[in-house]
Design a protein that fits this description.
The structure is a homodimer. In chain A, helix 5 (95-116) crosses helix 8 (164-184). The first copy, chain A, is mainly α. In chain A, a hairpin with a 6-residue loop joins strand 2 (80-81) and strand 3. Helices cover 67% and strands 3% of the residues of chain A. A 3-stranded antiparallel beta sheet of chain A has the order 1-3-2. Chain A binds chain B through residues 1, 3, 6-8, 27, 30, 65, 68-69, 72-73, 75-77, 84-85, 97, 100-101, 103-104, 107-108, 111, 163-166, 169, 173, and chain B through 24-25, 27, 30, 48, 50, 65, 68-69, 72-73, 75-77, 81-86, 89, 92, 97, 100-101, 103-104, 107-108, 111, 163-166, 169, 173. Chain B binds a DNA duplex through residues 1, 6, 27-29, 52-54, 62-66, 68-69, 84-87.
DNA sequence: CGTACACTTATTGTATACAATTAGAATGCA
DNA sequence: TGCATTCTAATTGTATACAATAAGTGTACG
């Protein structure tokens, strides 16, 4: 048995879920996991809502066993929480959690941007830039495209930073901060475009310090807005 | 239900509630989780070893269901990995993983130390210092005490940094770096004492910059040693 | 009325049977 | 022998029954 081939990182799992057409036939627990992920992201399941396992399993067309497996994976990612002998609850990211997560992102993701400077594929970078500019023009603002674009920009340098561990942690952090932003920062989304462009510019110039600064500024900007509008 | 049966029920409820206040009544999956955690830490289960669910379940005296639940928790923490339709495998932290993890720790844990400067309980700090000094004297070097002491020192400022998200990430990172250190850096353990003292000194002086530097130096020192002795 | 207690119901926790899949052995053929 | 193929055994994936627990409801008693 091969020791190097057995790792499946969270980032890779996410990527795999995007291009599902290539994968043969996901098993029941994976289907449930992907479905639940989307239900939470799309707020079909709202924060604070408790989950009755049998009902949800029936809805998704699987039995409780793979459903619970999916819920446990989601718990590991912080999308749901659970107390012993009590139902799973969809995580509600409060301001405190959000700010703490953003402060970690500010440190870590800025470093990732710096590490990635000079290592990102220029074609992918230009594609990302084009999408940001296109998104900026949409009227009304295309929320769904926003998150795809956000993923594209951040994924660009996170996956190019050369540190898989760091990438995995950022994947998890971004998963939870996104929950908060979807629920409470909808007004702020449009403004991210120019901050994203600033990051892309720094990456294209292979300027590690500028990339770090641009990413940190982006994070700080979100922090400031959250404190002002929610706190 | 007759009177004696009612009495017995009451007594059992009372006992249960008493026990709940003492220990949170560990269910089968939690027992399995704790047992496995220790088995991996103590290298009863060695890195790379694949796990046959039924056999291990029998060993632990639980059925496969709670065992799998435990394994999934451990997968979330990075102690085991799994590919679809293949057995769980005890994670083998290779040099690459270790260095990447340590680089993240160097960034994040240094920041945690800085944040904690001036916030740690002085009594706990002195206790930790005493244990470090005591450990340093042990002959032969007490490996078990080493890890308890390591946990005490790092836990001291990680839990005092005021950012629970950051603390959680560091818990997970330290879990995996410890796997590597137990397996491959046994010789290096003794040297951590004086680095730990340096961190404690900075914390006691409430000097954030010194704490950050001391922690980063500690991480870098481990990185250097790993590269030299393993690479 | 209100409170506490027993009782019923709903839900999570666990065991186990079975299905699907994988790995390995045996077999056939060139 | 070497290779591919088919069968067999072992193991993981899923469904489901049942046990333990928590939540809700009604009732007796003060």
């Amino acid at each position: 048995m091969d020791a190097t081939a057995r790792e499946r990182t969270k980032a890779e799992q996410a990527k795999a879920s995007v291009r599902r057409s290539a994968t043969p036939a996901p098993n029941a627990s994976t289907r449930a996991y992907l479905a639940l992920s989307n239900m939470i992201k799309d707020r079909v399941l709202k924060g604070g809502q408790s989950i009755v396992e049998q009902r949800l399993a029936d809805e998704l067309g699987v039995s409780r066993t793979p459903l619970r497996e999916a819920l446990q994976r989601l718990e590991g990612e912080g999308l749901v929480t659970k107390l012993s002998n009590q139902p799973y609850v969809v995580r509600q990211v409060d301001l405190r959690d959000y700010l703490q997560s953003m402060n970690v992102r500010k440190i870590l993701e800025a470093e990732a941007a710096a590490l990635a400077a000079g290592r990102v594929d220029i074609t992918a970078l230009n594609e990302a830039r084009a999408h940001v500019l296109e998104l900026e023009q949409s009227e009304p603002y295309d929320t769904h495209a926003h998150w795809a674009c956000d993923e594209q920009v951040h994924g660009l340098f996170i996956n190019a930073c050369g540190n898989k561990i760091m990438a995995d942690m950022l994947f998890e952090l971004r998963t939870t901060t996104r929950l908060f932003e979807i629920a409470r920062l909808a007004d702020r989304l449009r403004r991210t475009s120019q901050e994203h462009i600033a990051i892309l510019d720094a990456l294209e110039a292979s300027d590690a310090n500028a990339a770090r600064k641009a990413m940190a500024a982006h994070a700080q900007s979100l922090i400031d807005f959250a404190v002002k509008s929610v706190g």
